[in-house]
Every structure is written in structure tokens, then in C-alpha cells.
Specification:
The complex is a heterodimer.
Chain A (H helix, E strand, L loop, with lengths): L1 E4 L4 E4 H18 L4 H10 L4 H25 L5 H27 L3 H29 L15 H4 L4 E4 L4 E4 L1 H17 L4 H12 L6 H24 L4 H24 L2 H24 L6 E5 L1
Antiparallel strand pairs in A: 1-2, 3-4
Helix pairs in contact in A: 1-10, 2-3, 3-9, 3-10, 4-7, 4-9, 5-11, 7-8, 7-9, 8-9
Chain B lengths: L1 H15 L9 E5 L3 E4 L6 E9 L4 E7 L2 E12 L2 E14 L2 E5 L4 H4 L1 H7 L17 H17 L8 E2 L1 E4 L2 E8 L6 E11 L2 E14 L1 H12 L1 H22 L4
Parallel strand pairs in B: 2-12, 7-8
Antiparallel strand pairs in B: 1-3, 3-10, 4-7, 4-11, 5-6, 9-10, 11-12
The chains are: A mainly alpha, B alpha+beta.
Chain lengths: 303, 248
């Protein structure tokens, strides 16, 4: 069935969109990742303008994060204070991100920058995960040597504006979580991804938060940053396509349910390996797009 | 003999279609004057009908609303392929198609075809920034046409005009789902011996209607409310997914 997307101003196969929503929902059900890293490139690949893909993705992220955070809230695994400080930085990041996006679009470099950032971020994360899981599969039981964690370094400890985060049992500078949030906000506005895969390690290693509180707190602040980013895209660029977003959300809800059930059966380490392979694959395609001679050197854009 | 023929024709015209067919005249009309883009829109077929004096050749040109187009060229920069040069073309029709009653008409009436921009290679869209050689533009121009052809917005070749009856002609066009919205014009030329004997103009509108139009207008006119509504929907969807499809 063809459905006409009013903002993208083109018609696409509704089945393909639903399938995309279901697969991304499945991923989030199994791994708890947002799946934005799959959606944005795929939408662009389908011919949807990058601006519409990213703007709509910000909206879609709100829904996915709300679903995720409610579960964590119920279990009391969200550090609201930490989340608030992070989203303060995140708002500024997403505001700047939207302007960077607009500027890059104006000079015609947005596609290249999206591809470039994807290659770097996904390549890094994917390879790290790959080595970790493959290593873990072969040398089980061997405990890694704990080195001094990042957050214990003097540089981080001596920053001003220290705040006590009771829930996380931390007494650190508010600048740290604000900076982590800032980077997350940039990612949402420029790439249309929640950046959970980047935020979670940052919160553990840089902020030194207890692992249990990290996913919930990360999701909590992603809700508001992506909502803010979505609003900015809607006001400044008119690039949020509601029809597209709703179809993706519907697929995502179904996929997440299947994913959660599947997660009980799938073995953790193999699931992680699968995710790592997928991340590396997306990274590989983006790299090919950037580094292989294109079939057509020319591209056109209406303005 | 000639007088007789003329008289006979006049009589025919007077009897058959007194209002439309007259000597040296031609008419053109689309099968609809409004194409509606709905949520289920998947392109549309449109036929163009008309009358012309028998024996005349006919050329039709259909043009969509004009836009400014930017063409960019990728170049290799430290191994990566990145947009480097760009040219803006003013007044590029968002849709262009043409139909001829004979394929070899173009060679016969070259001057007219050039003047009236019939055929892709005669389309004249001005490069926005001047000061470069013609050959520099040519590659960009070609790329623009190739790209538009790929999107189905420019033709690969002309459509055939068929005569249903002496003087009554018809041509079929297809508008893909990504056609720009706005006013479309149709120009029809009656040609004989490389000269324009008569012409007519008509047009139709491609308009977004229904739900899809409402969303489009809402998003454009009141971005703030639109954004807030989108966020509210997302919040609701997220909450509903958690509540009604519980994980346990």
C-alpha cells in the first residue's frame, strides 16, 4: 500500500515503513537501544530528504524513550536530578545542533557530515562491542584488571559547581553531566539518534554513575532533549512528518513486544554479538557511501 | 477544386462541431482541471484532448511550477567523495513533458522548437551565477535533466499524439507521486511546413487535499503548535505502548 507523506512530499510503501518500525522496535525490545542509528540511514536510503528523516526521527525517539523510561521509573532506577542537569546541557546542544544542521544543509555538506559521523561513532562502538563480546565468548571467567576509572581523575574532580547527587551517591561538578548531555543534544539534532550507545558508557566512565541507574537516567533526559529538538525542527525547518512518525511508532510498538519476548530466549552474549555485527554493517555501508566513487557525481536539490 | 474543398470542410465543421473546429484554429484541454493529492496519492494519469485543423502537425508541452534548483558535484577530497562545486539554476520546471504527432517533427521545425522550448535539450533554465563558460554549465545541466528523468519528472522521450478522428487529437501523460504541487500549463502548437499556424493554452492544478493537505498546512503555518502536537502524540504513543502492551 502506498502512502503519501505530506511533509516529505512523496509516496512510499507503507509496508516497508512498518517493517522498518518493527525491526527497530525489535532491537529496542531486545537490547534497549533506541535504534535511531538504523532508522535515519534507512529513511535517507528510501529517498526521504535527510532533514525530514532527522526531524521525524526526533519525534519518534520521544515515544520510544517514554516507553522505556516508564519501566525504569517504576523500578526506581532513574536519577532525576542527574537527568535534569544533563538535559540542561542537552537543550543547548540540540539548539546549536539544529543550527549546525541548517548551516550544513545550506552549503550542501549535510549528507557527508551525517555519513562521516556515523562511520566514526558506529565504527568505534561497533568494533569495541565486537572485540568485547568475541573476547568474552572465548575467555570466560578471566577477570579484567580494573584500572583507575576516568571519573576519579583529578581534572574531573577539581571542576567547579559541585553538586551532590544523592541517588547516584556522587559529589561531582554539574559541568560534567551537562557536557555529556550537550553532546547527546548535538547528536539528536544532527543525526536523529538518541545516542544511548554513546551516553551510557559516558555516564559510567566519565560521571561514574552506578550501572543500574544509567539506562533509565539516559532515557529520561533523551525524552526531553529529543522533544525539544523535534520542536526546533518543526518550527525552524518544518521537517517533522507526522504520518511518517506515526507509522514508525506503530511498527515500533509491535516490534518492541516481539523483541522483549525474544530477549528471554536469546542468549545475552550472542545477542550482543548480533547487535555489534549490525552496527558494524551500518557503519560499513556509510563508509562505502562516503569513500567509494559514487555512481553519479551530481546531485540536485530544490531551493 | 480548392474552393470546393474549402467549402466542403467548412460545411463539415459547421455540421459536426460548429463551436470548436474552425479554420486556422486549435484548442487544447486537459481531461481534468484539478488533480488531487490525497494520503493515498500514487501518481496520476492525465489526458490532453484537442482539436486542430486536419493535416497540421501538433506539438504539446506540459510544464509544472518553476523552482530554483541547485546542482552539486562531488569531488574526491582525501579519499572521501564530497560535494565541492555547485550551480544554481533559476526557473526549472518542476515537471516537464511534451508530445508530438510525428517523431521527426523536431528536425523539421527546429526553429520553432527552439523558440518554444519543445524538447528537453531546448529547455532553457538560466544559471543563477554567471561568469563561467558554457561547457562548464553543460555537465551540470545534463545532470539536472538526468536526475529529473530518474525521478520521472522529465521525459525520456516524447509522448505520441494520436488522432482519434480528423482534427481531434489526444495525448496521455503520467504524473508520478512526487510531482510538485501548483499550476501546470499546457501549450499546444499546430505546425505546418515548419511554421506555427495556430496555438492554444490551457492548464490544470495539482492540489494537496484532505488529511494530507491539513497536515501540510498545519506544519507550515503554525510550526510551534504542530511541533507540540507531534510531541503530545509521541508521549501518548510511548505511554500507551508501556501500559497496554506490558512486558510481563
Amino acid at each position: 500500500m502506498q502512502v503519501y507523506l505530506p511533509i516529505a512530499e512523496m509516496s512510499v510503501d507503507a509496508e516497508v515503513l512498518i517493517a522498518l518500525g518493527v525491526s527497530v522496535g525489535f532491537l529496542s525490545g531486545v537490547f534497549g537501544v533506541g535504534g535511531g542509528f538504523l532508522t535515519t540511514p534507512f529513511l535517507i536510503f528510501m529517498g526521504i530528504p535527510p532533514a525530514v528523516a532527522v526531524g521525524t526521527q526526533a519525534n519518534q525517539l520521544v515515544a520510544a524513550s517514554v516507553t522505556g523510561v516508564l519501566g525504569h521509573l517504576r523500578r526506581g532506577n532513574v536519577d532525576l536530578r542527574m537527568g535534569m542537569v544533563m538535559l540542561g546541557g542537552g537543550m543547548i546542544g540540540s539548539l546549536i545542533g539544529v543550527f549546525i544542521f541548517k548551516g550544513l544543509q545550506y552549503i550542501g555538506q549535510i549528507d557527508a557530515v551525517i555519513a562521516f559521523l556515523y562511520v566514526i561513532l558506529l565504527g568505534m562502538i561497533g568494533l569495541m562491542m565486537l572485540f568485547e563480546t568475541v573476547g568474552g565468548l572465548f575467555q570466560r571467567g578471566k577477570k579484567q584488571q580494573e584500572s583507575q576509572p576516568f571519573h576519579a581523575h583529578a581534572v574531573f574532580q577539581n571542576l567547579p559547581y559541585k553538586i551532590r547527587f544523592t541517588k547516584s551517591r556522587l559529589y561531582i561538578s554539574a559541568l560534567l553531566p551537562a557536557c555529556v548531555g550537550f553532546v547527546g543534544g548535538l547528536l539528536i539534532s544532527i543525526l536523529g539518534i538518541g545516542g544511548g550507545f554513546l551516553m551510557v558508557p559516558a555516564m559510567i566512565y566519565i560521571l561514574g554513575m552506578p550501572g543500574l541507574l544509567v539506562p533509565g537516567t539516559s532515557l529520561f533526559q533523551i525524552i526531553f532533549i529529543s522533544a525539544f529538538s523535534c520542536l526546533l525542527h518543526a518550527v525552524a525547518n518544518h521537517t517533522v512528518d507526522l504520518v511518517l512518525a506515526v507509522i514508525l511508532m506503530l511498527g515500533g510498538v509491535v516490534g518492541a513486544q516481539i523483541g522483549v519476548r525474544a530477549a528471554r530466549v536469546i542468549k545475552g552474549s550472542f545477542a550482543r554479538l548480533f547487535l555489534a555485527v549490525m552496527i558494524v554493517t551500518v557503519c560499513f555501508f556509510m563508509a562505502a557511501d562516503l569513500f567509494l566513487p559514487p555512481a553519479d557525481l551530481y546531485s540536485t536539490e530544490a531551493r | 477544386m480548392r474552393v470546393f474543398a474549402a467549402a466542403f470542410m467548412f460545411l463539415c465543421c459547421a455540421v459536426c462541431a460548429p463551436k470548436i473546429v474552425q479554420a486556422q484554429e486549435m484548442k487544447v484541454s486537459p481531461s481534468t482541471d484539478r488533480i488531487e493529492v490525497t494520503t493515498g496519492f500514487d501518481g496520476a494519469d492525465i489526458s490532453v484532448f484537442g482539436v486542430a485543423q486536419a493535416g497540421h502537425d501538433i506539438a504539446l508541452v506540459m510544464k509544472g511550477p518553476q523552482r530554483r534548483m541547485i546542482v552539486r558535484k562531488k569531488e574526491e577530497v582525501v579519499g572521501a567523495w564530497i560535494n565541492r562545486r555547485s550551480i544554481a539554476f533559476e526557473s526549472v520546471p518542476g515537471f516537464y513533458h511534451y508530445a508530438l504527432s510525428r517523431d521527426d517533427l523536431a528536425e523539421e521545425a527546429q526553429e520553432i522548437f527552439n523558440m518554444k522550448a519543445i524538447g528537453l535539450n531546448r529547455l532553457d533554465f538560466e544559471p543563477g551565477e554567471g561568469g563561467r563558460s558554457v561547457s562548464y554549465y553543460a555537465a551540470f545541466r545534463e545532470a539536472l535533466i538526468r536526475n529529473k528523468q530518474g525521478e520521472g519528472l522529465f521525459p525520456l522521450k516524447s509522448q505520441q499524439i494520436t488522432f482519434l478522428q480528423d482534427g481531434f487529437y489526444k495525448a496521455d501523460f503520467h504524473l508520478p507521486s512526487n510531482v510538485p504541487k501548483g499550476r501546470y500549463t499546457i501549450e499546444a502548437y499546430a505546425l505546418k511546413n515548419g511554421e506555427v499556424k495556430a496555438m492554444d493554452q490551457n492548464g490544470f492544478d495539482v492540489v494537496q487535499v484532505g488529511f494530507s493537505a491539513k497536515i501540510f498546512r498545519f506544519a507550515l503555518q503554525d510550526g510551534l503548535s504542530y511541533g507540540l502536537v507531534s510531541i503530545a502524540i509521541a508521549f501518548f504513543a510511548g505511554w500507551a505502548a508501556f501500559t497496554f502492551l506490558r512486558r510481563d
